[in-house]
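Protocol step 4 of 5: obtain the predicted structure for the target chain.
Materials: sequence only (see below). No template structures provided, no constraints applied. The aim of this step is simply to have a reference model before the mutagenesis design in step 5. Sequence pasted as it appears in the construct record:
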Amino acid sequence: FFFSSRRRHTRLQGDWSSDVCSSDLDLSSQTDTALSETRSAVAAQFEETSAAFSERLAGVQTTMNEQMSALSTTLDEAKALTAEQLAVVAESMSGLSDEFTALKEVSVETSTKVLAVNQLRDALASSAPVRPHMSSLEALNPTEEPLLTVLSTVNSIADKRVPTQQILAETIQALSPKLINETRINTAESRGGKVLARLESLVSIEKIEDIAAIPGIEGNMARASARVLEGDYEAALTELLDDTVEMNLSAETQARFDGLVMDMGNRATYEEQRRILGDWVTTTLNSARASVTN
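Step 4 output (structure tokens):
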């Protein structure tokens, strides 16, 4: 009986061990399958992420290349502009060097006067009052006829602000449409004519290549603007003062036009005095050089 029970116990224990091993094998197989599927999913996700990253990186690289190209172009343009400006400065410095070399050959009194004249000449090119620069030159008690003439001529407007070329051109451009419109409307006869003139004032003037052929106030203002851009203020003033052209303006517009005429006349005066001062400096320095050569 003891033997029989032991065999039965041993057999049952063996059967139980066989069942556990079979379950472990099934679980291991399922785990391997799950791990394989997970690896595949992770690999696929990694490849997808890597492709998206590569595409994004390529886009960033392209943007950077475009920006670097634009920056390079900007730098090249800046270098070219700087080179041009340096060339202008070099030319100006060369002229100043010649002028200072000549100044060393003249008396201290004359050289001081030349510097004061150049300061006044530069001031006349701006829109600021020139009285302080006039006073500096007057303090040197000049006796030269050209200098005395300039001081006398400029004295009456030395405290005013005289518009520069750019300001005058902008003023003409801003005032022209009002002059043209008011003249057309105010000179029209009858109510119907005024209505027609108002309609015509809304239509831009056909571009005419030769501004000399433009009639009426339109032509005068166009030619005055062109003369200002050329630096011929006397010719521009002549266009503004053309009494053969009829104008019919409101009091406000007439006042603005009269102010433009006055400013144009003052600028013409200033530019003429600048020319006289420049000629005096050139003559004085040339005389100094000639005396050294002899």
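Step 4 remarks: Confidence is low (pLDDT under 50) at residues 1-6, 11-18, 189-208. The CA atoms of residues 183 and 248 lie 5 Å apart.
Proceed to step 5.
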